Amino acid sequence: MSAVIGWIKEHLLLTIYFGVSTILILIVVLYLLLELPNKGNSNEDTIEQLISENEKVMDTDIVNEDEQKVLEKNEGKIVIELKGAIVHPGIYEVKSGDRVSDAITQAGGFLENADDRTINQALLVTDQMMIYIPEKGEEVIEESYTDVPTTEENKRKININQAEQAELIELHGIGQAKAQAIIDYREENGVFKSLEDIKNVSGIGDIIFENIKDSIMVD
Fold this sequence. Notes:
By secondary structure, this protein is of the alpha/beta class. Helices cover 48% and strands 11% of the residues.
C-alpha cells in the first residue's frame, strides 16, 4: 500500500512540474508573439519619421534655393516711370547704372515736339524715379524728374483747400509766388473740387501738376 502511495506522489509531482513548465513556456511564447510585432512597427515608424524629416529638410533647401534665385534675378533692377512727349510712355524696368538717356531710348525716344532742354540725360536713374518730357512751348520747371523715395513722411498729403503759404511751398516746384496764387485763386473762385482744378491757377501747368498730384488732396 505504501508503495502505491509513493508511486502516486512521485508521478503527481512530475505532472505538476511538467504542467507548470508548460504554462511558463506558453507565457513566454505569447509574450514574444505580442511584443515582436510591436517592436517591428516601432522600427518602421522610426524609419518613416526619419524619411519624412529628411524630405522636409530637402524641401526647405529647395525653397531657399528658389528664393535665392529670385533675389539674384531681381538684384540690380530698377523700376521707373516715363511720361510726357515720349514715344512709349509707361513704367520700365532698367538696370542699375543706367542713365536717363538709356531709359528714354528703351521707351522709343523723344517725340518730334519734345523739349529736352530741362532733361539731364546723363543722370543715373534711381528706383521709383519719374521722368517727365515736356513739349516745346510747354511751361517747364528747373527739373522734369523726381526721385524722392516714398516714406511715411512723404505720404502726408497737403489739402490745397486749407493749406497756407508755408505748407504749399513744401510742394515740389511751388515757390512763394505760386503758393500765394493758389490762395488767391481759392479766395476768388471757391474751393478746388478736384486735383486737376489747380492747373487753373496761373503759373501751374501739366509739369508742375504731375510733380505734385501725389502730394495734394481736396475735401
